[in-house]
Amino acid sequence: MAELSELERQRHLKLQRIREKGIDPYPPRVERTHTAAQARTAFENAREGETPTVKVAGRLMSIRVMGRSAFAHIEDGSGRIQIYLRQNVLGEEEYEFFKRDFDIGDFIGVEGRLFRTRTGEVTVEVQRFHMLAKSLKPLPEKWHGLRNVEIRYRQRYVDLIVNQDVRRVFATRARIISALRRFLDEHGFLEVETPILQPLYGGAMARPFTTYHNQLHQTLYLRIATELYLKRLIVGGYERVYEIGKNFRNEGVDQEHNPEFTAIEFYMAYADYNDVMDLTEEMVAYVAQEVLGTLQITYDGNEIDLTPPWSRIPLRQAIKEKTGIDYREYPEAESLYQAIREIGGDVEPKATWGKLVDSLLNNYVQPKLIQPTFLIDYPIEISPLAKKKPEDPSTVERFEGFIGGMEVCNAFTELNDPIDQRERFLAQGRAFEAGDEEAHQMDEDFIRALSYGMPPTGGWGMGIDRLVMLFTNQTSIRDVILFPLLRAKE
């Protein structure tokens, strides 16, 4: 155990003293009649002359002792309420117990009548109190709070105690997920669950996490996407399905990426990517209105309007406008690499053609897409699961949605031709052998599923963490994940 600080040592001594008095500092239960918010409401709704009596409980967040009386604030999940303790009400021994052995951070249960102070604050005049849990570590200093980002992420529980804004972010996150679920349920989608441990990873171009099943003597992978299993359900006869859950990608960590993240995917039969774009606009606007009460948000200093319709721009056009490069004029990786170098681009010499197109998008186009925008019609080389455009077999019916300079969703008119899909997987296999670690793997069972027939289908995926970032104005994904992955301490 780490050496105790002087403040911690004092708290341990208080704990010992409390136990020596025969008091359990961690009792198994408490009687509570009101939350802090309910107590305030009870006072405001009381008839003239009535003084409601309440039993409230919470964490001590401030203590101000003034001789024979003391004011304090306690906080529960609903907010704060002031309590008032007087020696001539509690008796000298009980009052001294509070004054001597209670600290900020302790949990306390109090019973008493409600009144309003001269400053107008609804307050409980304490007649009885009980220690509910002794805090052995002091909270961060009141006025500075918890500022160290490293500690905030590693000790999120402390961050939540002292930073109300952080608690609000995660409450908003929960409401966003509920609104997404409600929207899809109301539009006839069925929520399903698919495997996280998979014998073959797929549905995206990413490196997986690998694990091993001892009983089956089998290597398994944490899923990188839910796509291929959800499309199997479309084959099986469900017309609209969705899943909300964790995906895992063995990749770097930055402002927009965490190896473990929450995604939502849906698939709708008898629809294409145009239908999915319409639904995306409607859904994001619905969630914003439900959660924020407005379609106007502020993100990273930018005022953003989520009102449909959103701009729809071909990817090829967007890249050419921002860089002067028409990637179809450079059909080989080497020539495209040279064109990017000529405009000052910093790219890997051995990058595939598709990776080079991605670099143009990520470095020159995406940062400028502040207002909601769909980039549409992607090269087939970077979209192994999307359907070709009938008039241009080198391009697929795919879109990505961008808001605030950040990609928030990705969608296709889904490829449902099993022969074409096999050829795409084979091409991805060749890319993997050439060194592309994120290339898609061959999935024979998925080909078999498609061979039974899948209707025309629109598919869509969104990173929920990024939507939460936008709606709460947080520029780091770690600020919207309760317990982000961190490098192990030495």
List segments where confidence is low: pLDDT < 50 over at least 5 consecutive residues.
Answer: none
Question: What's the helical proportion of residues?
Answer: 25-40%
Overall residue-averaged pLDDT value: 94
Number of strands: 19
First CA to last CA: what distance?
Answer: 16 Å
Give the class from helix and strand content and strand pairing.
alpha+beta
Total number of helical segments?
A: 15
**How much is the radius of gyration in Å?**
29 Å
Indicate the proportion of strand residues: 25-35%
Q: Which of globular, elongated, flat, extended, rod-shaped describes the shape? A: elongated
Q: Please describe the biggest sheet, giving its number of strands, its sense, and whether it closes into a barrel.
A: 9 strands, mixed
Fold and architecture overview:
It is a single chain. With 490 residues, this protein is of the alpha+beta class. Helix content is 34%, strand content 27%. It has 15 helices and 19 strands. The protein has helices spanning 6-20, 36-45, 87-90, 92-101, 149-154, 156-162, 164-186, 227-235, 273-292, 315-323, 333-342, 353-365, 418-433, 444-451, 464-472, and strands at residues 53-66, 69-76, 79-86, 107-116, 122-133, 190-191, 197-198, 210-213, 218-222, 240-248, 260-269, 296-299, 302-305, 311-314, 373-379, 388-389, 392-403, 406-413, 457-463. The strands form four sheets. Strands 6, 10, 11, 14, 15, 16, 17, 18 and 19 form a nine-stranded mixed sheet that branches. Helix 7 (164-186) crosses helix 15, helix 10 (315-323) crosses helix 12 (353-365) and helix 13 (418-433) packs antiparallel against helix 14. The longest helix has 23 residues, at 164-186. The protein is elongated. The model has no long low-confidence stretch (mean pLDDT 94).
